[in-house]
Write a structure and sequence with these properties.
single chain, alpha+beta, nine-stranded parallel β-sheet, 19% helix, globular, binds alpha-D-glucopyranose
Length: 798
């Protein structure tokens, strides 16, 4: 191996140094290494260039406040090791080779001699890949679900039409999350190299058994997650980089956008059409044409009275989200520019004196230096003008940042930021720009929310660019896709990998942004997006209209059906959002999440689970009216036909244009709401509880007001629903409600599937009436909601 040969020449010969911090502190010529355990299953390894000083703290990882695990360290003549209750890091002091093994002695990570190098401006690390190891995550990615065999560069760029068929060699995207989840034989582990400078990974492409990572920085700041559960790895990663705050409930509704609805009248027409046609919708977007000459935080002539517009739309149940790009038009008369200059808020040119000038939609522009807290609060104040006019959410775009003036489409790498921790060249912090812009937007919405923080409307921020931890500030939408089948295919895997990378709230332009969509493609995209966390239709200037009614009556009908389904699913979705917030579990889950020991499930990236209990297999090929679906080891009920199927097999699912292959797991407990026109149109007092008898029935129910920040102060309600089947009896238990929030649910309308007969239904021991819907094999009964425990039992009388 060339790497090993090189190693022989550069023997690193580490020696141990005293350090008050628990862990290992070692030095070899020109390099220091610190190894710490943050948790039993989380190691932090830092190699830094030079012989003095401590490593610089992370830009995004907050200080670790969890209790540290008990560790044992040992420094012998040839090896130094650190052992936690679940794993051991061991370094060969002579060669620098290292391994991480689990309690069974299985190698989880290993790096050969010479595979870890750090110089002043570049650091590299090569991990061994084992046979059958698969690699997922890496945030926003194009191409195959399993990232093994591919290369990825972490350097945020503005890229038009990023489907692999269009840009086969594309390695960069808008978002950089250098975190990966590796899976082998059902065992998961994770790697996160925390640096916002340029980083490139070659995951077994150049050498099939090597995972080569390189970054333009003089340090390796590495977190290793030992698992062994997929959920453990993602939970730890989320604990490290922060969890997603809850969005307002309306943010889960359907959203309509276009580049652009150019006038106030047009926006109102669109709103009217939605309501007239009874197509549910919660949010309308204003793209760049709403501004006065693309000047940020302004409204132009075609939007003469924005607050009245927002009020009128508000009365119809619509929220408005406006685009906010970072580039501030370099117009000396423009107030935002004048105030920004006065605050000295813009990124500096390489000389460190003049403001850097680039070019974006407004023409020549300056770029706020979001890496500075003072600049973020200035921006937050400027943004208030939007909240004051009734804008409900902020859509951050072009925040890689995009710059049309340079071939590399971003800022000069030598530009100077004056960050909270001192001056930094753009090249060293590039990937943080969008992250901190989203932070500024979120903080702006919080600051504009009134004196009582608990009553502040929940911020809703969308971002195109981001770095690890972006989930704390914004949801990620995946930018400029195209209206073609390749891109629809790509979206499924992209969202799954994003979801595994700590970003559960994600989605893409439904129907495709670039080029004209077709009725069939649009329908398939719409059906898929009904089950994605973020559900927004958006299309480019010059393309044909793409509203749900614009492609003909049959398409509109199908969209209506799926919109109804989306709105009915909202209570289930919201519970999944709450779970994602507390554990990091994705909302949209790859099969490997629940079936890690099933190799077919692990490889499956073209179908997914929504939570544990719904399986969606989107139709991704033109003309297809059926597709193969893998059903993992459980029993599944075909949603549209009620057919019961055993798992562990592929089935061919019929999918004429009006349907999508959709399966419910036996054991499912699915709360359904009304098919309303917008969130809050109807009261939440009666919710359906669709239950399918089967094993491991569980729902983590969550409620709060859905609108304000009061949930952050504990105004929540949680309870666990469990169900089981014993003999011929099916039972459901609701644990006592926990938390001070008073449930809005008065009645749970139980819909028990696969129940053919009138039987005995008991609620808390008392016989209760129920109806039988014979043609659907269901029984229906109302369960009055109370805060105490509820026990329901059903057994058929034959
Ligand atoms: C970028 C965005 C796109 C938006 C357009 C105009 O291309 O990705 O969504 O419509 O800019 O603002």
């Amino acid at each position: 191996m060339p790497a090993r040969r090189r190693a022989a020449k550069t023997r690193t010969a580490y020696q141990s140094l005293p350090d008050p911090a628990p862990g290992l502190h070692l030095r070899s010529p020109g390099v220091q290494l610190r190894v710490e355990a943050l948790a039993d299953d989380l190691l932090h390894l830092r190699w830094t260039h030079g012989t003095t000083g401590r490593p610089t703290p992370s830009w995004v990882v907050p200080p670790w406040i969890q209790p540290r695990p008990t560790i044992k360290t040992k420094v012998g003549a040839t090896t130094a090791s650190l052992t936690t209750p679940v794993g051991t890091f061991a370094l060969d002091l002579r060669s620098g080779a290292w391994t991480v093994t689990d309690v069974h002695g299985l190698r989880v990570f290993s790096a050969a001699a010479g595979a870890t190098t750090v110089s002043k401006a570049e650091a590299a690390l090569t991990l061994d890949l084992t046979d059958g190891e698969s690699v997922f995550g890496l945030g926003e990615t194009t191409g195959t679900f399993n990232r093994r065999g591919l290369q990825r560069e972490f350097w945020n760029i503005d890229v038009l039409g990023h489907a692999p068929a269009i840009h086969p060699a594309l390695k960069q995207l808008y978002v950089s999350i250098p975190f990966a989840l590796s899976m082998r034989d059902g065992r998961a582990a994770g790697v996160f190299w925390d640096t916002p400078s340029r980083q490139s990974w070659d995951i077994g492409q150049t050498q099939f058994d090597r995972w080569q990572m390189k970054a333009s920085t003089g340090a390796i700041d590495l977190y290793l997650f030992l698992g062994p559960g997929v959920d453990q790895v993602v939970a730890r990663y989320t604990q490290l980089t922060g969890s997603m705050p809850l969005p307002p409930k309306w943010g889960l509704g359907y959203q309509q956008s276009r580049y652009s609805y150019e006038t106030q009248e047009r926006v109102e027409e669109i709103a009217k059409e939605f309501r007239k046609r009874r197509l549910p919708c919660d949010v309308l977007y204003l793209d760049i044409h709403h501004m006065d000459g693309y000047r940020v935080f302004t409204f132009g002539k075609t939007f003469p009275r924005p607050s009245e517009l927002m009020q009128r739309l508000g009365r119809k149940g619509f929220k408005v989200v406006t685009i906010v790009d970072p580039g501030v038009k370099n117009d000396p008369k423009f107030g935002v520019l004048k105030r920004g200059r006065k605050a000295d808020a813009f990124v500096k040119a390489p000389d460190g004196k003049a403001d850097y000038l680039g070019e974006v939609w407004p023409g020549e522009s300056r770029f706020p230096d979001f890496l500075n807290a003072g600049v973020r609060s200035w921006w937050a104040q400027e943004q208030k003008v939007l909240s004051d006019q009734g804008v409900a959410g902020i859509w951050n775009d072009m925040n890689e940042p995009a710059n049309f003036a340079r071939p590399d489409k971003t800022l000069d790498p030598e530009c100077l930021h004056r960050t909270d921790r001192g001056p930094e060249r753009h090249r060293d912090v590039h990937n943080l720009y969008g992250h901190h812009m989203a932070q500024a937007s979120r903080e702006g919405l919080l600051a504009a929310g009134g004196a009582d923080p608990s009553q502040c409307p929940r911020p809703f921020v969308i971002t195109r660019a981001g770095y690890a931890g972006i989930q704390r500030h914004a949801l990620v939408w995946t930018g400029d896709n195209s209206s073609n089948w390749d891109h629809l295919n790509d979206a499924v895997q992209m969202f799954l990998n994003l979801s595994l990378s700590g970003v559960p709230f994600c989605g893409g332009d439904v129907g495709g942004f670039l080029e004209n969509t077709t009725p069939e493609l649009f329908v398939r995209w719409f059906q898929f997006s009904t089950f994605t966390p973020f559900f927004r239709n958006h299309s480019n200037i010059g393309t044909i209209p793409q509203e749900p009614w614009a492609l003909g009556q049959p398409v509109e009908e199908i969209c209506r059906t799926f919109l109804h389904l989306r709105y009915q699913l909202l209570p289930y979705l919201y519970a999944l959002f709450a779970e994602a917030r507390s554990t990091g579990a994705p909302i949209m889950r790859p099969l490997l999440w629940h079936y890690p020991n099933d190799p077919v499930a692990v490889a499956s990236g073209d179908q997914f689970l929504l939570g544990r209990d719904l399986m969606i297999a989107p139709v991704l090929r033109q003309g297809a009216v059926a597709r193969s679906v893998y059903l993992p080891n459980d029993t599944w009920i075909q949603f549209w036909t009620g057919e019961r199927l055993v798992g562990g097999q592929h089935v061919v699912s019929e999918a004429p244009l009006g349907t999508i292959p959709l399966y419910v797991r036996a054991g499912a407990i699915l709360p359904f709401g009304p098919a309303q026109q917008f969130v809050g149109e109807m009261p939440d007092d009666t919710l359906m509880l669709h239950c399918v008898p089967g094993p491991r029935g569980r729902l983590d129910w969550y409620e709060d007001d859905g609108e304000t920040q009061a949930y952050e102060q504990g105004q929540t309600l949680r309870r666990t629903f469990t169900s089981e089947v014993k003999g011929r009896t099916w039972s459901l238990d609701l644990s006592p409600a926990e938390g001070p929030f008073a449930s809005r649910v008065k009645t749970w309308r139980l819909v028990l599937w696969q129940a053919r007969h009138k039987g005995r239904l008991r609620i808390n021991g008392r016989q209760a009436p129920h109806d039988v819907v014979e043609d659907q094999d269901m029984i229906v009964a109302d369960i009055p909601n109370t805060a105490g425990p509820i026990h329901v039992e059903y057994s058929p009388v034959m």
